[in-house]
Automatic annotation (TrEMBL):
This is Glutamyl-Q tRNA(Asp) synthetase. One of its GO terms (biological process) is tRNA modification. GO terms for cellular component: cytosol; ribosome. Its EC number is 6.1.1.-. Residues 13-283 form the Glutamyl/glutaminyl-tRNA synthetase class Ib catalytic domain. ATP binds at residue 249. GO terms for molecular function: ATP binding; glutamate-tRNA ligase activity; structural constituent of ribosome; zinc ion binding. It comes from Janthinobacterium violaceinigrum. Zn(2+) binds at residues 105, 107, 129, 133.
Length: 308
């Protein structure tokens, strides 16, 4: 399967999780998605992905909105919250169930890893789900999650061209296996929720961090079985800490704009984020920053390798 980006109209989005304040890593993703929408004269939506309730931090969602506004990034329309969209996910799951594509799985992570080892896989390697529960739960097993069946053979190979990283390809059967759409704790899996949201909101272009690059084939498959269009994709490099880990709340990323003046915000956040994306911007005011950053993003896109 191949995915090609839609052309017009352009509808993009930024979709942070409220597990902490906006930090440099998430600012880079926000900036790239915002600039891409502006360059293409498109719409930029804001969606708070708050379905992992155990990780949500009270007030972080409103803090993220305030940080974006302080940075001069203003979204179109009203912001949305995934936690207010649960009927959409329930309807999508029912569609998948009616099509016979979902089944109950009773396997723990350890059991899946043990199965990989028994099949000769490397210890600590990627645990491809072996399909243990595809034909029903073993006696005495209780359901821990719901999984989506992936196709076998050539139909399992999903390819797409990323506007930044170039041609990509993944064999869902061989590299992922049947994947979870509803977790054992009752939380909706990211893959299902993001596909349903993007489809319902009419997203035509997804710009996000490269840490989500390998999730894209699963989302393309879900879009196919749910009858949703494929958006175009652009995955920017992720910011890392001193240990080479992706900068995130879990690796100690800190808010960048707490108590800072507009000048400090430029120096400590906006200009470094622009430099990380390869943009030549030298403004000393926030408004001037964006006036320079938008054409600089267009120039950056023009310098990307030809995406055959």
């Amino acid at each position: 399967m191949n995915s090609s980006p839609l052309t017009s109209p352009y509808i993009g989005r930024f979709a942070p999780s409220p597990s902490g304040p906006l930090h440099m890593g998430s600012l880079v993703a926000a900036m790239a998605s915002y600039l891409d929408a502006k360059v293409h004269l498109g719409t930029w939506l804001l969606r708070i992905e708050d379905l992992d309730y155990d990780r949500n931090v009270e007030g972080a969602d409103l803090g993220i909105l305030a940080s974006l506004q302080r940075c001069g990034m203003h979204w179109d329309g009203e912001a949305t919250w995934q936690s207010r969209r649960l009927p959409l996910y329930e309807a999508a799951l029912k569609q998948l169930q009616d099509d016979g594509l979902v089944y109950a799985c009773g396997c723990s992570r350890k059991e899946i890893q043990d199965s990989v080892l028994q099949a000769g896989g490397p210890k600590g390697g990627v645990a491809v789900y072996p399909g243990t529960c595809r034909h029903g739960l073993a006696p005495g097993k209780a359901a821990r999650a719901l999984r989506l069946r992936v196709p076998q053979g050539p139909p399992a190979v999903y390819g797409f061209t990323d506007r930044w990283a170039g041609p990509q390809q993944q064999d869902l059967a061989g590299e992922v296996g049947d994947f979870i759409v509803l977790r054992g704790d009752g939380y909706w899996a990211y893959q299902l929720a993001v596909v349903v949201d993007d489809g319902e909101q009419g997203i035509t272009h997804v710009v996000r961090g490269a840490d989500l690059l390998d999730s894209t084939p699963r989302q393309l498959y879900l879009q196919d079985v749910l009858g949703l269009p494929h958006p175009g994709f652009l995955h920017v490099p992720v910011v890392t800490n001193g240990s080479g880990e992706k900068l995130s709340k879990q690796t100690g990323a800190l808010a960048f704009d707490t108590g800072t003046s507009a000048a400090d915000l430029l120096a400590s956040a906006l200009l470094p984020a622009a430099r990380f994306l390869g943009l030549d911007v030298r403004a000393d005011k926030v408004d001037d920053f964006w006036r320079q950053a938008i054409p600089a993003w267009a120039q950056r896109l023009a310098r990307l390798p030809e995406q055959a």
